[in-house]
């Protein structure tokens, strides 16, 4: 560019995309001329690629990651109420849930499933371990910080009659999370309540009624609507259909699957009925006495279970066709006490497994035997 040409430039600016725009005099007109700064454009492109890579890496991470979580309840006794022991309800559990995925958690009553769910949403504070939600450790988060965070994860409880305040109307129950999170004005909250009632299949006239005026299935729909009010990123479903009639169970399950399809919600689905869990889950984790003993894809765990306890649960599923009845042996023994668990494999101790002595003193934990299939490394309950 010559000195004469430089003298014709009357203004110069950047458009923010690596291009310099100059205003030149060119008789008899004044025109805009665009000159591309190649180096600046290259930096802009590299920055955009880096941002996209970070977003991709973030999406590949699990939405929820639980690492070695323990929830032990103290047992007190004596005149001074000193701690004499502890109930090991959850004892070193590690799981993960990705966007749009349903992880089914199954096991006998009292194995720690509900305690794990309540610990994940921080209704209970774990003794140790980590709960990583959306890349943030919420294990030891303060109650003030948790109050803001709770809109990201919600829970649907087993008994809707107990979880819904009988003194509050349906409108008050569903809008309460919005009030607590200070979301919208009164008119917007009312509209949101009507929208949620429509979505869960309840009439808008239900807004002024009370929980005792509804059936069990309808009450559970109210609980689901309340959980959805703040647009959570994760739902923990604690046996949401176990208290319902069989005919109503399918309706609620279909509703949950429809919501997941429309909203892309991931679920932690807690149940003791393997047939129900198979219907809704992508992956299944089997829990026994506070520990996960097997975890893999739903189809794989039914087609080729590896742990003896998983096999026993599958064999216990009722068969509706009498012509296809199968021979099975009921489980023997009693579930060990979580206050005083055995020194080796808890299930091997229950069934008097021949190799139980080998498990004593072992650090029993999950091992990946094939891609995505995790099984306890217990020598007495898993065929190698």
Topology summary:
Elements: H1 3-7, E1 9-14, E2 19-26, E3 29-36, H2 38-60, E4 64-77, E5 82-97, E6 102-106, H3 113-120, E7 128-133, E8 136-137, H4 143-149, E9 153-156, H5 160-163, H6 170-180, H7 186-199, H8 216-228, E10 234-238, H9 246-263, E11 267-271, H10 274-280, E12 283-288, E13 291-297, H11 298-303, H12 308-315, H13 346-350, H14 356-359, E14 366-370, E15 373-376
Parallel strand pairs: 6-11, 6-12, 9-10, 10-11
Antiparallel strand pairs: 1-2, 2-3, 4-5, 4-7, 7-8, 12-13, 13-15, 14-15
Helix pairs in contact: 6-7, 6-8, 7-8
Radius of gyration: 29 Å
> What is the tally of helical segments?
14
Q: Give the spatial strand order of the biggest sheet.
A: 9-10-11-6-12-13-15-14
The low-confidence parts are 1-38, 52-58
Largest sheet: 8 strands, mixed
Q: In angstroms, what separates the terminal alpha carbons?
A: 78 Å
Name the helix and strand elements from N-terminus to C-terminus, one letter apiece.
Answer: HEEEHEEEHEEHEHHHHEHEHEEHHHHEE
Helix- and strand-based class? alpha/beta
Mean pLDDT: 84
Task: Estimate the helix proportion, in percent.
Answer: 25-40%
The shape, in one word, is globular
Strand % is 25-35%
Beta-strand segment tally: 15
């Amino acid at each position: 560019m010559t000195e004469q040409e430089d003298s014709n430039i009357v203004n110069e600016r950047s458009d923010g995309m690596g291009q310099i725009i100059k205003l030149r005099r060119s008789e008899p007109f004044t025109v805009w001329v665009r000159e591309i700064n190649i180096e600046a454009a290259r930096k802009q492109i590299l920055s955009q690629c880096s941002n996209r890579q970070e977003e991709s890496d973030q999406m590949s991470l699990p939405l929820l990651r639980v690492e070695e979580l323990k929830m032990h309840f103290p047992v007190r006794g004596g005149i001074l109420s000193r701690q004499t022991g502890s109930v090991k309800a959850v004892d070193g559990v590690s799981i993960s849930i990705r966007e749009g995925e349903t992880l089914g958690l199954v096991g006998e009553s009292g194995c720690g499933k509900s305690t794990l769910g309540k610990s994940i949403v921080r209704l209970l504070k774990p003794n140790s371990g980590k709960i990583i939600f959306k890349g943030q450790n919420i294990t030891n988060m303060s109650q003030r910080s948790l109050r803001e965070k709770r809109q990201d994860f919600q829970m649907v409880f087993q008994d809707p009659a107990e979880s819904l305040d009988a003194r509050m109307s349906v409108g008050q129950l569903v809008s309460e999370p919005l009030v607590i999170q200070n979301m919208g004005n009164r008119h917007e909250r009312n509209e949101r309540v009507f929208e949620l009632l429509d979505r869960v299949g309840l009439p808008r006239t239900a807004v002024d009624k009370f929980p005792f005026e509804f059936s069990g299935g309808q009450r559970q729909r109210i609980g689901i609507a309340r959980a959805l009010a703040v647009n959570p990123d994760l739902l923990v479903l604690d046996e949401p259909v176990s208290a319902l009639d069989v005919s109503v169970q399918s309706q609620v399950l279909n509703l949950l699957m429809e919501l997941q399809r429309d909203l892309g919600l991931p679920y932690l689905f807690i149940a003791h009925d393997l047939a129900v869990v198979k219907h809704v889950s992508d992956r299944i984790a089997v829990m026994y006495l506070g520990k996960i003993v097997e975890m893999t894809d739903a189809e794989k765990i039914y087609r080729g279970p590896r742990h003896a306890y998983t096999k026993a649960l599958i064999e216990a599923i009722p068969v509706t066709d009498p012509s296809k009845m199968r021979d099975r042996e009921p489980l023997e023994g009693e579930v060990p006490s979580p206050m005083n668990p055995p020194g080796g494999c808890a299930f091997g101790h229950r069934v008097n497994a021949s190799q139980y002595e080998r498990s004593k003193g072992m650090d029993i934990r999950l091992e990946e035997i094939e891609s995505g299939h995790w099984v306890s490394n217990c020598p007495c309950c898993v065929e190698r």
